[in-house]
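Exercise 7.
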Amino acid sequence: MKIRLGPDGVHLFDRQTGLNVLLDEVQPAERSWSAAPRQVSIAVTNACNLACSYCYAPKHRAALEKSQLLRWIDELDEAGALGIGFGGGEPTLYRHLPEVCAHAASNTDLAVTMTTHGLRWNADLISRLRGTVNFVRVSVDGVGSTYERLRGRSFTQLRAALEAIAGTFRWGMNTVINEDTVGDLDAIVAVAAEHGASELLLLPEQRTASTAGASKGTLRVLQNWVSAYTGPVRLAASAEAELGVPTADALPRETGLRSYAHIDASGTARTSSYAPSGIRVGDSVIAAFEQLARMEAA
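Solution. The predicted structure, written as tokens, is:
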């Protein structure tokens, strides 16, 4: 198990099972606290073969250079991060993805997760990622005709991909909630349960420069649905959402950049993927996070 020291105690983590153990009766000295955020999401590329109208990801061409990314991953591991989450864009369009995941699995103790639309997960890709990815998050916005209208792809094709992913990886489903998808929630849960998803992550659509985000009416419908939910798949919600999803904050003092950070495909460290500004990462990703923390505190 990996050991992380922080303001809440000694945190033990097993990336294979997802087991977390907190020894909160132990209070490590502040100088010994792990320097890295607990979790870092990394957009390896901005490329995507879909064109969803509500996507907030940058549309300019960018992808991380492999050798630099590997150095950052090693540094995050040494500095006490517990996990990295690859996204984009669509991470499976990043040509170095299998090599990067294999490096993390073989050379670090980091948990590797991935957020993907799932439609490129064929037998070859699955065989190349098997044993190197600990959890896969598949974005599924609506079912049937709703999904096909929003994503422009066959829902039957998606179901086949879910079946293939579920046969090899622990996985969960992500759903952007907006006026189009909120009415499909029960059907989304049914699909998630059918394919063995361990959780459904609810992501109310965020406001961007080109979209208004989820309306107040949609959020009320979502909150009422969550309140009445008794389904078979565990619910989770984004940090920005206040939906009444049952949570237990075991690390109440590990907040902000101690908890989470994001690196975009241009190599800029940000407090989240939605943050409008950040710090360019150079040779040291931890130095960039420290500079970002000072900028946030100013």
